[in-house]
Amino acid sequence: MSMVARLLPGRWARPPADARRGLHAAAEWLARAQDATGCGGVSAYYDAAKGQWAGAYPETTGYIIPTFLRYADFSGRSEYRERALRMAAWESDLQLPDGGVRAGTMDATQIVPTVFNTGQVVFGWLSAWQLTQDMRFRDSAVRAADWLVAAQDPDGAWRRFGSPFSTHAVNTYNTRVAFALAKASRALQEPRYLDAAVRNVQWALVQMRPNGWLENNDLEDNDRPLTHTIAYATRGILEVGLMAGNSTFVDTAARVARAVAQTQRRDGALPGRLDSSWQAASRWTCVTGNAQMAIIWQRLVTATGDNSWKPVAERANRFSLSIQDVTSADGAVRGGMPGSHPRSGGYMKNRYPNWAAKFFMDALMLQLDAG
Q: Is residue 77 part of a domain?
């Protein structure tokens, strides 16, 4: 086929992907990542270049908990419920005396609380408590949420307790923490958590340029943020808006989601980084960001009734499925999702991070639930 033919609309398409097969393979990979640590937490990633698993990662283990609980219901496989509750108990065992959650993996020598990680584990404790009514999980969620509120500055930003492993201390993607506080407010009937969440989103929107691009929104390079952190920020703005009944937040999230959608490649992938003009700033794609944006686009279908988001999300999911290896004899690779595509790209190079598989599962379950 000529280059011209390949560029014509509709002339090039991937074969149909089996979403259920991909979902189950990702779940099994995450189970192996949990087993690799021997402690209940989930290994942060598998390093294919070194051939080894990293230490357990409290932050992402926390938000894998609701994914596994949902998958247990979706698949009827109760062992995933048991795995999720082991994760939640492990998180409670590790919670710091002040209520925060430590930065980094269990391999890290520094043991300090950090805002973002704490917010992500709140998702896990809330879902475990709602399932079991075990007061241990409720108490952990309350202590963590109280710590987050106490750590917040009056204008809504979190400037203290940033991760020592991130270049920037102040981040607009902390709206993902605001999302956790909003969920805590609803689950625990505590209005001040929602107030704190709204203040953080309001602060984040002050960082927004007229075209919807957010300042201070990357782990390392604020001029060229990852789609991963763009998606963190966008999802936080959207979900806080929905829970607070704030249509401005929802409309703003939709504006960002639309700007990102316009960068989608024909195969369904997104550039791994985007600049302040919403132009591609990398040739590789960030696999986690693809999955997260698929979630956001599907949530917008539900929130707004606008079905035009659906094909964009399905293309992203189809791309993710196309790069997942479900046949490898290597269980550390089979079913996992790489950090970048190609695997040598600039995010989590030659690694399979657990959060890529987590968001991939969430995106597929939304699509499969919608039929």
A: yes
Calpha distance 84→69 (Å, rounded): 6
Q: How far is CA 303 from the centre of its chain?
A: 19
**What is the C-alpha to C-alpha distance for residues 181 and 249, in angstroms, rounded to an integer?**
16
∠367-16-329 over CA atoms, to 5°?
95
- Three-state DSSP class for residue 102: strand
- Copy the structure tokens of residue 321: 């499925």
State how many domains the chain has: 1
340 SS3 class: strand
Residue 143 lies in a domain: yes
174-186 pLDDT, tens digit per residue, is: 999 999 999 999 9
Range of lowest pLDDT (69-78, 212-221, 344-353): 212-221
Q: Please report, for the domain that includes residue 56, its CATH number.
A: 1.50.10.10
The DSSP-derived string for 286-302 is EHHHHHHHHHHHHHHHH
> What is the value of pTM for the model shown?
0.94
Domain range enclosing 174: 16-370
- Which pLDDT does position 16 carry in this prediction? 52
Whether residue 342 has a cis bond before it, omega within 30° of 0: yes
DSSP state of 14: P
Contact between residue 17 and residue 268 where contact means Cβ atoms under 8 Å apart: no
Average pLDDT score over the chain: 94
Token pair listed for 286 = 């960030």
Query: What is the three-class DSSP state of 135?
Result: helix
How many other CB atoms are there within 10 angstroms of residue 266's CB atom? 14
Task: Identify which of 363, 257, 260 has the alpha carbon closest to the alpha carbon of residue 304.
Answer: 257
CA Rg value for the chain: 19
Cα 319 to chain centroid, rounded: 18
Residue type, 39: C
